[in-house]
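Chain A, query sequence.
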Amino acid sequence: MAKITLSNLRHSYMPNPKGPEDYALKEIDLDWTDGGAYALLGPSGCGKSTLLNIISGLLTPSEGRILFDDRDVTDLPPDKRNIAQVFQFPVIYDTMTVRENLAFPLRNRGLDEAKITERVAEIASMLEVEEMLDTRAAHLSSDNKQKISMGRGLVRDEVNVVMFDEPLTVIDPHLKWKLRSKLKELHQRVRATMIYVTHDQTEALTFADQVVVMQDGEVVQIGSPVDLFERPQHTFVGHFIGSPGMNVLPVSENAGVVTLEGHPVTLEGAISGQGGKIELGIRPEFVSLGDSGIAARIRKVSDVGRHSVVEAMVGDIPVKAVVEGAVPEQGEAVHLVLRPDQTRLYRDGWIATEART
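Chain A, predicted structure.
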């Protein structure tokens, strides 16, 4: 396995880029440690697939370098980088048995049969597919085909990194959680460096130890799932992660006092920076209903099972709150309480309050 370093990386599909808007990937600097589980998370078009193709060697970056264990591999072709990839659609041979599919990457590299037999048995046990080893792949269900595709990526124990490109896209929703759990378990057992590319926050947050959130070719935050939820560094992260996403509310600031529709709001800490577009960010989980607070009126109540999501209007501004137990009726007057240590100011999208220690 390998530590992966991306240094001053930029990429444009245009021959003569003029400015930042011409770059699919803006400047990226990342270090992924050996044996870690990472996710690239972002919407379609954010640059995550471009980044994956650069790491795999399918694309040469316009600028910057890629290092595996401090060895520069920027100009090496894919077959010289010792990478395993698992794609959206299972890459297996339907005419081969499961055993032959798992063995193929090892036979292709000239390993002796005893080692191949041992490694195939080990991976089959991890995947819980021992009973189908002699079944032709054409007869497998789509989730089992993707299991075997994952196994082909993991069977080689000398690869630098295993990369997963939206591997659960074609899997039925009720089977996705099984494969997500299996993949997490496999990482914990083999400790390979793994990079998982997805637009699905649930897949990223359940698989990865560290998540790289991308937007418009930029990395907007790197952190654990807890970091991303509890302290989004950018309004995009707050909106993209969470269900429902973070409330992002227009506010005013005067002499250090922030107001929402005329109501003073207590923030988590001191305000930094000046100027720009300012917004208030707070997750619905940290908005509650109280006897006093910001006057609002209920517009909508959605029962989502374990709790309800209440949308209340503060003037013309909708604010969501997660409420357990009894909820008010539509049109009822209420007061909203914003938990101060989870209430933040954002300036031009970026966090602009200091966390209290």
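The CA atoms of residues 252 and 258 lie 6 Å apart. The chain has two domains: 4-230, 243-351.
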